[in-house]
Amino acid sequence: MDRILIVEDDFAMLETCAQVLARAGFEVRTAGSGREALEVLQASAFDVVLTDLRMPEVSGLDVLRAAKHSDPETVVILITAFPTVDTAVEALKQGAADYLLKPFSTEQLRDAVRQALDKRRAKEEYGFLRSQARRAFTPGGLIGRSEAMLRLFDELRKAAAVDAGVLLVGESGTGKELAARCIHESSARAGRPFVALNCAAIPETLLEGEMFGHEAGAFTDARKSRAGLLEQANGGTLLLDELCEMTPPLQAKLLRALEEGKVRRVGGSDPIEFDVRFIASTNRDVRRELREQRLRADLYYRIAVIEIHVPPLRERKEDVPLLAAHFLEEYSRAYGRTFEGFTRAATDCLTRYDWPGNVRELRNTIERAVTYGKGPLVEVEDLPAAVQAAGQEEDEVDFHRWKERTLERLEKEFLTRALRENDGNVTHTARALGIHRSTLQRMMRKHGISGGS
Hints:
Elements: E1 3-7, H1 11-23, E2 27-31, H2 34-43, E3 48-52, H3 60-70, E4 75-80, H4 85-94, E5 98-101, H5 106-135, H6 147-160, E6 166-169, H7 176-185, E7 194-198, H8 204-212, E8 213-214, E9 226-227, H9 229-232, E10 237-241, H10 248-260, E11 262-263, E12 272-273, E13 277-282, H11 286-291, H12 297-303, E14 306-309, H13 320-335, E15 341-342, H14 344-352, H15 358-372, E16 377-378, H16 385-390, H17 396-421, H18 426-433, H19 437-447
Parallel strand pairs: 1-2, 1-3, 3-4, 4-5, 6-13, 6-14, 7-10, 10-13, 15-16
Antiparallel strand pairs: 8-9, 11-12
Helix pairs in contact: 2-3, 5-13, 6-7, 13-15, 18-19
């Protein structure tokens, strides 16, 4: 339950505000003067401070400064019947969340408090998600905390421990190249070349020379010799992205090079030895490609010693808020914008949507929101129409049940583990997570985690 301190020297106004907010489900404490409020703030912490601006001796601005000194994350709302530009600017500089102009309705009072709290929660959740994202990184840059991704990380670690060929299978945009980089950077070949070749992006007539290299004069415009990617990747890893786009004749040449450990440049005759680990990826149905002979079985069995499925984003929706926070931080920095998180409605839209374009589509969506949005929070209106429509589906009860069961469980597990790593010390844990101590304490209360020191 959120705790609110109401500071007002008009007793009738003080009682009315207290009754309205108590009926709205808040825990309310009152102070009849600014001086009394300073004493209360020294002894207790509050989520919201609602204070009159004009009071004798100790003003609302004095209460604002004291509340922010006690806890920078406290939401402070000022009440006044005499607004001025100078006062408003000073209040915003000091960190006031909102102004309420007298007279105001009970509905305006409730809305002001709820909206201010929603903004703070969004900001805190964003900071917490960024902290989780930093800890959820793999060496190759994959991010995830879902069961599907934990299984993937385990498979990638096992693949990194040996030097066998790997085939990564998954839809477009799932992060297959990042998975390949993770294997490389976790293996004994880390620190050596990692070379990626997109077989779908290079015309067939150029692909052979790109892969095997060529000698001077091998074809028109070949004025000097050039090492192919097999030579450039020597000692390291070569990723053949979208392997099934390679023609069967070229697959046969690749197979021969693999089996011999030697490459002959186009237009050359001397074999050149190479030592490369092969990783291939495809978004095709491998079994169908084999049946229809678009993928050579002998090459498949040579490369796919280990086959790993990279899950689509719709199968790991609990990772969507984590990824969204990571991309929001990345693009806010890239575009010089200030964003503090997502509204709850925007997060619901992002989590409900099925993401046919997977992580690539989510990245694009967040970049678009940063360029279009006004901030400081990403709103539903900043998202593409298809993502917005996902938030209007009528499975509200089932969705929120899933959200509580899955997302909040992961959040609680992360908090518990972080506290354990810091021997239960709240201050050290908050510092390690990069969040304010009061934010951590609020999240601990939310999840019923008993406090340490």
